[in-house]
Each structure stands twice: as structure tokens, then as C-alpha cells.
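Design request, C-alpha cells follow.
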């Protein structure tokens, strides 16, 4: 019978949260997934994930939340990360880091392993252990319990992602690239078994800079003064991929989607 995975691309800001609230139910009704995974590395203030937002996303029907280089930016989540099992930080963060990097989900008679990993290119503030070294070891451990292994690989370089896809393909069911917040059109099934895409995109405002307000991004590039205080709201979408897995854990298909959520009413933007 196999499994169907619905992956929601990086949720960015209040518009991203609103897009999930607006579009997820109808998307689930249409696709009928067995499990829903979402990256929420930029859900709170476009950088990081707050404890309250994590709980809200879980309540809306997301089974596992992955992160990336910003997942530890919000103190309230960090302080409770050990008691929030559905939120994953990168598995290649040091042992001293709170939380966990992978989770096993029971789906009927099947178990699905969801893994979060961060690359080593494009990040100046965080440095994870080598994901290329860890991946085969972790996959060997997880494969003793399930043939279904799905990886969110958060990297700042497409070259690192592509190299990692080929490195991981013999061991896992899918590797979904995240962090760039721009959906790529290169989804494929490698080696006839591993679904991959360089970046699944973003969920939130499309008329923006990576989901953030345009003028604030321009000002930062001109002045070097960070400003994450302004939300972008125009033309909201819920983006991501659907992945179909066979009984043996091999990927059968991967399909991109862009679900139009429209513009939120003024009452939501305040």
C-alpha cells in the first residue's frame, strides 16, 4: 500500500502561519497524506520558531516540524525543546544541544523516520558536524526499524545539496532541500528509490524577499542594519511537495505544489 508524505516548505512569518491555517485542510483533503511534515525555521518573525507557534502548527495538523540554522533563535522554544518531541533541530548539532534531530512516527502499521540535518555551507553563526559522515551511520540505525526515512537537508548551497542527495540516495527514501525559500523545478527520483528536490520553496508571502517585507530587506543591504520587524503579506501561497513511497520504502513519485491562499484580510495583518 505504501505511504504518502506531504511536506510543507519553510513557513515564513505571520503570513506563513496564516497560509497554513487557510490552506492546509483543503490540501490534506485533496492529497490524503499519511503524514504531514513542515519546515518552520522562519515562522516566528521570519527567523526562528516560538513555542506558541510550534504548538499552533501542531494543532493545525502538522505531525513533525523541522528547522535549520534559526531553530534555536527563540528562547522560549529552546527552554522547552526537550519536552516538545514533534519539533526537530538538526541531528548533527552537538550532543550538548537540547532537543532531538530525528523522530519515529507511527502511521498505521508503518513507522516513518523523519530526520533534520544542516549543511556546512552558507552559515556563519552555526556549525554542525559533517552531515555526509553522519548520514550513512544514522540511516543504518534507523533502517533497523523502518524502510521509510525522510530527510530535511537545510543548506545554503545548491552544490552541497546535490552532492548530499547522491550520497544519501542509497540509504533513504527522500531528501528535501530547504533554506533558500525559493521553489526549484528539479524534483526527481534518484536511483529509482530516493525522491529529492533542491528546495521545496516557502510558505507565506510570495511578493516579498524570502517571505520578508521588501523595503526592510533593501534597507538592510544598503545600511547593514538588520530589521526583521516588518511582515510581508502580499500574495500568500502554501508550497511544498507530495512524495509517494512504496511498501519497500522506495520513492515512487515526487510532485511539487503551489497552493494559492490569496491576500489576508486587513484584520489578520494587524
Amino acid at each position: 500500500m505504501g505511504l504518502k508524505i506531504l511536506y510543507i516548505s519553510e513557513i515564513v512569518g505571520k503570513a506563513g502561519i496564516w497560509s497554513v491555517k487557510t490552506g492546509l485542510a483543503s490540501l490534506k483533503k485533496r492529497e490524503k497524506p499519511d503524514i504531514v511534515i513542515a519546515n518552520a525555521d522562519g515562522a516566528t518573525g521570519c527567523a526562528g520558531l516560538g513555542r506558541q507557534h510550534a504548538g499552533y502548527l501542531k494543532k493545525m495538523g502538522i505531525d513533525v516540524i523541522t528547522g535549520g540554522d534559526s531553530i534555536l533563535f527563540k528562547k522560549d522554544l529552546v527552554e522547552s525543546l526537550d519536552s516538545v518531541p514533534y519539533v526537530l533541530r538538526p541531528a548533527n548539532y552537538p550532543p550538548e544541544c537540547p532537543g532531538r534531530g530525528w523522530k519515529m512516527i507511527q502511521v498505521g502499521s508503518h513507522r516513518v523516520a523523519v530526520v533534520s540535518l544542516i549543511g556546512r555551507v552558507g552559515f556563519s553563526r552555526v556549525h554542525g558536524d559533517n552531515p555526509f559522515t553522519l548520514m550513512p551511520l544514522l540511516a543504518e540505525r534507523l533502517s533497523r526499524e523502518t524502510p521509510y526515512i525522510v530527510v530535511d537537508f537545510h543548506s545554503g548551497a545548491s552544490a552541497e545539496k546535490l552532492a548530499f542527495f547522491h550520497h544519501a540516495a542509497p540509504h533513504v527514501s527522500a531528501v528535501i532541500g530547504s533554506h533558500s525559500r525559493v521553489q526549484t523545478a528539479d524534483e526527481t527520483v534518484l536511483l529509482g528509490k530516493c525522491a529529492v528536490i533542491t528546495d521545496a520553496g516557502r510558505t507565506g508571502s510570495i511578493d516579498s524577499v524570502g517571505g520578508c517585507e521588501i523595503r526592510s530587506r533593501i534597507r538592510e543591504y544598503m545600511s547593514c542594519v538588520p530589521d526583521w520587524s516588518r511582515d510581508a503579506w502580499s500574495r500568500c501561497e502554501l508550497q511544498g511537495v507530495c512524495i509517494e513511497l512504496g511498501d519497500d520504502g522506495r520513492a515512487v513519485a515526487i510532485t511539487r505544489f503551489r497552493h494559492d491562499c490569496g491576500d489576508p484580510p486587513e484584520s489578520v495583518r494587524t
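Comment from the thread starter after seeing the answer: thanks! The two ends are 46 Å apart (CA to CA).
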